[in-house]
Amino acid sequence: METTTIESSEVKTAIARLREKAPFVYGLTNYVAANLSANVLLALGAGPAIGSAPGWAAAFPAGAGAVWINGAALMSSVTPDELDEAAATAHKAGTPWVLDPVAIGAGASEYDAILASLARRLDAVVAVSGEVDYLCDPAGRATAVPGGDAKMPQVTGTGCSLGALSAAFCAVVDPFTAAAAAHAAFATAGERAGERATGTASFAIAFVDELSLL
What we know:
CATH architecture: 3-Layer(aba) Sandwich
Structural class: alpha/beta
Order of helices and strands: EHEHEHEHEHEEEHHH
CATH class: Alpha Beta
Number of domains: 1
Number of strands: 8
CATH topology: UDP-N-acetylmuramoyl-L-alanine:D-glutamate ligase
Strand content: 15-25%
CATH superfamily: Ribokinase
Shape: globular
Strand order of the largest sheet: 1-8-7-6
Radius of gyration: 16 Å
Oligomer: single chain
């Protein structure tokens, strides 16, 4: 399996395109993750709109560069129908969209087979995060993304904001490269933030700082 890092040429190109194009990303998530997710998007040049109101799920996806749907949105005021409507509107408009089902796990030894099977069945890029992140596309191309920091899961919304950034990259590059670039950016920013943070609060601030400096 290949490995992707922040030094990979496709990742550098994706980051440059994201900053150049500054795509609008419409997202649905829960209240807790919205602030960090918005700041993560802004740190790398994307423009976020996160939340729901009557008519938004039917309107915003058609005009967005990408759409991000986080399953935890159901813990806030977002309804299942709104999630379905956002996905359907994005699909109809040809807008790339990312689904983060949240907290779906399996044993590490099963990741390769599960990812490959899901990617084929869904005809989509599938990614899972952990100590090492793994990604696979429908054609069987796979990559591992090492890095990150142990404090990342201790900051609320970190995983959710990874889905948001993946969507942003989907607006400017192909889905596999988008996922790889988002995971590589997170891994590197997490490592660098961990080197200078004194605790979880300072880590959260340093993490967004490091993303903005990539």
